[in-house]
Known about the structure:
Elements: H1 9-17, H2 20-29, H3 38-45, E1 49-52, E2 55-58, H4 63-67, H5 69-78, H6 80-83, H7 90-100, E3 106-107, H8 108-116, H9 123-139, E4 142-146, H10 149-159, E5 167-171, H11 173-185, H12 201-208, H13 213-225, H14 229-242, H15 246-257, H16 261-272, H17 275-287, H18 298-314, H19 318-324, H20 331-338, H21 343-353, H22 357-372
Antiparallel strand pairs: 1-2, 3-5, 4-5
Helix pairs in contact: 1-5, 2-3, 12-15, 13-15, 14-15, 14-16, 15-16, 15-18, 16-17, 17-18, 18-20, 20-21, 21-22
Amino acid sequence: MPPVLLRPEAELRKASEQSPLLGEVRGYVAGSDSGDPLIPRWAEVSGLVRVVDGKHVPVEENATLVDDALRLWERLYSTIGEAEPLPFGLVASITLTLYRSGPVAVPVELLFEAIELGQAPDGSTRYATSVALDLLERLGALEKRTADPAGLALIAEIAGKPDPSPYVLSLTPIAVWAINRALREAGMDAPVIGEAAEESLGELSPRLAKSAPGIIDAELKAWVRHRSPSGAAAEASAFLHSARLPVERLFALIALGETGEIGLETAAAVRAEGGLVGAAAAMWLSERGAVDRETITRDEVVLGMADHYAAMHALGAFVHQLADMDDRFDVVDLLTSSGHPDRLELLDVVGTDHPDRKMAKKARTASFKLRSSGVRGPGQRGDA
Length: 384
């Protein structure tokens, strides 16, 4: 499971109080009539009422639950599949799929396909999924938005449908909290952002490398907050010097950026040392306007940018950057002349995925020439 950010309890309690369904259930338990047959069923399976002489009466031992909005919300969430009979495990499949996606919204159309994966085509499964989604949204566990035109076109392409559902879904903070609690109670590894703040950057980095950008940023903020600015800067600097991978250098620089002025001073000292680490620090300082760009040398630019691209490649973002590059920017010349240890791997990506065919062909040619001259990729003998 990816690490998740849990909101403060006060914010979660406010969200639970704002759930319209919560108010309906409370009103029913207090004696109000409900025109919706779902509400009595949900109140009963949640243990809030029981049948006496053919009528629902409040369960006294659960009276405090009715008054505690957050606990009541969690109870209602945990009993969705009983209040409205649904296929076993359907709600868990939906919510865990969304939980694993982190802050990235999931198109409804692709969620349907994920739930139906491995099953024979059956309209009843899609209907049940729609019912479950409606209940989750009604409770306040889901946020539903409409995809923009570009997003909708991408959904149609991936799903292979000309008119897919235009909606995308993500969990609300209170749902993330409830699922995290349930996973932990079940003994599963369900990390929370900030829990690893005591770890070293070296221990934290492998997990960060598998995380979404928002999680990376939040984890490193929490890591820095756990230390004094000077202590965090010193640790980040030491890791920056010892880092073997471009993505590790990126994490160290992001951490330095969270320490304020002392981080900029530390990065400037690293730049003065030169080499690959110095070039990475130089470009990072330049991007933040902490140094005059005219003072950045060509060697720092090509090596520092190549290291940044290598880090983005490790995070799965380099391909997307290629599509956004200015047509006049020659990424092949930059990578070829950089001398970066990962330049062959990056040239292979450009050769395969660059939208400009000429640039892609140029990258393949450059990669072939470097290999023919004896240059090898990381982990191979003959690195240049």
